[in-house]
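Whiteboard transcription, Tuesday session. T.W. wrote the structure tokens on the left side:
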């Protein structure tokens, strides 16, 4: 009987040899895999934390946060709710005094034209033949003359009555305007067409204003 055999046990329970059998637990590979995954995750967290600390100390995060929203914001032009009304800049025909001069060889043209303008609400000033400066020298339908400030006020209103007329400023100080009838003149614009053009001057024109999109 071997010394390894406990007392009272023999036969098939007899242990032979002079070494104890090695009793090992079965290897569990799953635990090793989990340990490796945990180690990799821990290293990743440490690296990410290090990068965050570097960004805080160098100020990169502040620059990125400051630049980010501005890059996404854009300005756009949209019509303003408060539109500028053209009627405030353009006077009514009754507020405009028109001098009518004939620069053509046709007699009576100045008076006939002045009478028609009077019917359409304009005030009439001087009526007669054009001066030598313009007599038979206006080739188009007519020439509208006024002081510089009248270029955007009285002259556009008078221009609705005569299509194709040239508009020019001179050095006068008064507020009256001249209509010099040219050799290409046939008649004033039809009253219906002139009224439509006059109404178009009085329509408000929207002015574009800049607005920012929401960020």
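and on the right, the sequence the group agreed on:
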């Amino acid at each position: 009987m071997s010394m390894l055999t406990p007392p009272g046990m023999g036969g098939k329970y007899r242990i032979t040899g002079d070494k104890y059998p090695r009793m090992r637990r079965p290897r569990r590979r799953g635990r090793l895999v989990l340990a490796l995954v945990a180690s990799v995750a821990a290293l990743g967290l440490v690296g990410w934390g290090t990068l965050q600390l570097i960004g805080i100390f160098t100020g990169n995060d502040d620059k990125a946060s400051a630049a980010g929203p501005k890059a996404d914001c854009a300005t756009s032009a949209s019509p303003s709710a408060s539109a500028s009304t053209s009627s405030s800049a353009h006077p009514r025909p009754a507020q405009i005094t028109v001098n009518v001069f004939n620069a053509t060889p046709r007699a009576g043209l100045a008076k006939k034209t002045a009478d028609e303008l009077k019917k359409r609400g304009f005030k009439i000033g001087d009526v007669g033949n054009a001066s030598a400066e313009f007599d038979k020298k206006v080739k188009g339908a007519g020439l509208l003359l006024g002081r510089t400030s009248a270029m955007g006020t009285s002259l556009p209103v008078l221009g609705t009555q005569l299509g194709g007329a040239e508009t020019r400023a001179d050095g006068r100080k008064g507020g009256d305007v001249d209509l010099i009838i040219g050799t290409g003149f046939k008649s004033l614009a039809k009253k219906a067409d002139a009224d439509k053009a006059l109404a178009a001057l009085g329509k408000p024109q929207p002015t574009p204003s800049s607005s920012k999109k929401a960020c």
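Someone added at the bottom: Residues 29-58 form the longest helix (30 residues).
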